[in-house]
Amino acid sequence: MSGSLSSLYGGRGVALVSGMGSRVRDSESREYIDFFNGHGAALFGHSDPILVSALQDAAQGIWSGGAGFESPARAELADALGAFLEGGRVFICNSGAEAIEAALKLAVALRPGRDKIFACRRAFHGRTCGALALTFNPKYKTPFKSILPEVGHFKPEELPELIDERTAAVFIEPVQGEGGVHPLEPVTGRALSDACAKSGALLVADEIQTGLGRCGALLASELTGLAPDIVCVAKGLAGGLPIGAAIWKGALGDFPPHTHGSTYGGNDLVARVAVAALKLLREKNYAAHAVKLGEELRAAIRAIGSPAIKEVRGLGLLNGVEIEPPSADIVRELQGRGLLALQAGPRVVRFLPSFAADSADAARAAEIFAGALAAVAAAR
Ligand SMILES: Cc1ncc(COP(=O)(O)O)c(C=O)c1O
């Protein structure tokens, strides 16, 4: 082979080749409980028959017609997403970072002359330049500082005091994912929403990881006191196919003509699968399943009773366990024992089960986690 992938992601050392529901298999036929799910993109689990069938149907039709042409699939998706906010308008793109970029440009366009943009300490909003400016971790930003727009980062509870008539927008994750799995206190979310409403600053909820039922509601904003003007979604929206969207209250206005766009955004193929995914989410009442399963998982992990566990936190199926040993060691050990998880910082293990996971998966995952903690402790 002549090409070689960049080493940006580090290596897990296995090739995942198939999946069904909450399980995946590697090229050696080893099975794993998947609480990683492609960084949370496989929100409905693997090979969901309804999504597979939607994709097969969509593949028979036009794949990419172009944004200037009408598309029944894109229109249906825009209607479904627009219903998230009052009179919602929608921009459809291909990833989370692109949804954030769209929200950032929109906020600047809708609030000309305002020169302040705020985000939170520990925030993660993506790695393209606008999204990277909103992201907090200097590890991701430092080499690119010279080309990033200015953003002020503060603790959520500090922000209401700082939001004023010069503030264009405030970006916030209802539950910080990458930053360590920290749910926003509803009282803080309400204070932030009030401060934005009073000053005319736009409140942007980054629901890329938290939204679409994962946290136990269509939008986790509902659970954390946030009343957003703009919402960004991505990850599970088309069950794991690339897609993102920025949704905003129609009364705010729109992008000036021809100031934003995307070749693939809202293409017919992915739009059809996203429409099917949103229908599935509603019909199966997966948000309620997420609440119940999340509670079971957190209870089972707390019941391990290990002194290595400092805190178990989360909302629905977005969960973090703060531990004493390095999370990288535990994530590696879990994989060796048949459970896929991911880090959320150096001391937090993140579990992102899909809607396909059940109580038996949660109980087994907690058992594997207990074994991994004990093994890592014994080896240290
Ligand atoms: C909260 C949040 N915002 C933005 C992003 C960026 O999304 P993407 O990787 O699709 O660009 C992510 C991805 O993990 C995320 O979790």
In words, what does this structure look like?
The protein has 380 residues and is an alpha/beta fold. It has two domains: 114 residues, Alpha-Beta Complex (Aspartate Aminotransferase, domain 1); 234 residues, Aspartate Aminotransferase, domain 2. The protein has twelve helices and 17 strands. Strands 4-12-11-10-7-5-6 form a seven-stranded mixed β-sheet, sandwiched between helices. Strands 1-2-3-15 form a four-stranded mixed β-sheet. Strand 16 and strand 17 form a beta hairpin. Helix 2 runs antiparallel to helix 9. The chain is globular, with a radius of gyration of 21 Å. The two termini are 40 Å apart. The mean pLDDT is 97. The protein binds pyridoxal-5'-phosphate (PLP). Pyridoxal-5'-phosphate binds next to helix 4.
Per-chain topology:
Elements: E1 16-20, E2 23-26, E3 31-34, H1 37-40, H2 49-60, H3 72-82, E4 89-93, H4 96-110, E5 116-120, H5 129-134, H6 138-141, E6 152-154, H7 159-162, E7 167-172, E8 175-176, E9 182-183, H8 186-199, E10 202-206, E11 230-233, E12 244-248, H9 268-283, H10 286-302, E13 309-315, E14 318-323, H11 327-336, E15 339-340, E16 342-343, E17 348-351, H12 359-379
Parallel strand pairs: 3-15, 5-6, 5-7, 7-10, 10-11
Antiparallel strand pairs: 1-2, 2-3, 4-12, 8-9, 11-12, 13-14, 14-17, 16-17
Helix pairs in contact: 2-9, 3-9, 10-12, 11-12
